[in-house]
Amino acid sequence: MTTIVARDTIRAPQRAGDRIFSTATVVAGSLILAVLAAVAAFLLVQSLPAFVATPADFKGDAANFWAYVWPLAFGTLWSALLALLIAIPLAIGIALFISHYAPRKLAQGLGYIIDLLAAVPSVVFGLWGIGVLAPLLQPFYTSLVEWFGWIPLFAGPVSGTGRTILTVSIVLAVMVLPIITAICREIFLQTPVLYEEASLALGATRWEMIAMAVLPFGRSGIISASMLGLGRALGETMAVAMVLSPSPQVIFALLTSQNPTTIAANIALNFPEAHGTGVNILLATGLVLFVITLAVNMVARVIINRRKAFSGAN
Questions:
Q1: What is the CATH number of the domain that holds 150?
Q2: pTM reported for the whole predicted model
Q3: H or E element at residue 28
Q4: Cα 312 from Cα 314, distance rounded (Å)
Q5: 215 contacts: CB under 8 Å, gap ≥ 6
Q6: Average pLDDT in the 201-221 region?
Q7: Residues of the signal sequence (predicted)?
Q8: Which distant-in-sequence residues (6+ apart) come within 8 Å of 128 by Cβ?
Q9: Residue 51: C-alpha distances to residues 48, 266, 270, 271, 313 (Å)
């Protein structure tokens, strides 16, 4: 009789291909960590002069680095948050339509179109925002200020060009929409059929079945998809730099001509003419953006791991 100890000692012989594949995966994983550590070390070393820079080294009225980077960090988080508020409901609705409502042929075609949005360069989105979206929305912004100007978010004076933080947020929402939609669609399709059939057998309508079975099953997947979309919006450069009329201030108003800019856009606009300590200051703002995006992705990973036994998001 084979004992438990004997069973533990029985192992399949390792082939050369298995050893090569195992070694390659370890090297690839280690390489990713090494590159990440190298980027972090480079940014940290190059950022040190910025932390002790004098007020004369900064553009504007900033007295130190933190006073300089705070409006940029605010603009980065503010525009990305607004983009998520617009994109998440649309992405969930599109994903549910593709997975549970649309005919199969229509769902496949619509899925391909949504996925193709991810392949559009950010410069094209920026040109679309300047040439089409901003002029189209400007009359609507004027009406918003007339109707809801008593609300601080919609306070005037309204921008005459339509190039506002709200326009940028809409462009960013369109850019992150494919990421959130694709992940939510796959999560919804992984909902156990027995859950759905049990809900329908108890007399639930299709929407009630989705509310009771599909959405609870995909909750962590929706959150993690939103976090990945947030990471994409935080790092966007060209579309923001092309559409936004930047101002180094903390401004909550959505429709004015003065708007807070983002870290990535500020680096793209100022790096070509920067020199000396100015380069270190921009690299230091890049370090702040690196920390923010890293924290966002870590939070997304934690959320996935907390509910991976109950969700298809793992």
A1: 1.10.3720.10
A2: 0.83
A3: helix 16-51
A4: 6
A5: 222
A6: 84
A7: none
A8: 171
A9: 5, 18, 18, 18, 40
Within 10 angstroms of residue 55's Cβ, the number of other Cβ atoms is 12
Half-sphere exposure of 277 (CA within 13 A, CB side): 14
Domain that holds residue 209: 52-306
Cα 7 to Cα 10: distance, rounded to the nearest angstrom: 5
pLDDT in tens, 83-116: 999 999 999 999 999 888 888 888 888 888 888 8
Q: What is residue 118's predicted lDDT score, i.e. its pLDDT?
A: 80
Residue 290 lies in a domain: yes
Residue 5 lies in a domain: no
Please report, for residues 157, 240, 265, the alpha-carbon distance to residue 169 in angstroms, rounded to integers and kept in the order given: 19, 9, 14
The average pLDDT across 227-245 equals 82
Query: How many domains is the chain partitioned into structurally?
Result: 1
DSSP structure string for 80-146? HHHHHHHHHHHHHHHHHIIIIIS-HHHHHHHHHHHHHHTTS-HHHHHHHIIIIIHHHHHHHHHHHHH
Q: Provide the residue type at 45 as one letter.
A: V
| Coil vs helix vs strand at 241 | helix
The answer to whether position 17 is within a domain reads no
Judged on CB neighbours under 10 Å (0-12, 13-18, 19+), 105 is: exposed
In a domain, 45, yes or no: no
What is the torsional sign of CA 197, 200, 206, 208?
negative
Q: Which of 270, 265, 188 is nearest to 233 (CA)?
A: 265
Q: Report which of 162, 163, 172 is spatially closest to residue 76, judged by C-alpha positions.
A: 172
**What angle do the packed helices 104-117 and 165-189 form, to 10 degrees?**
140
Residue 202: helix, strand or coil by DSSP? Answer: coil
Note if the bond before 157 is cis, omega within 30 degrees: yes
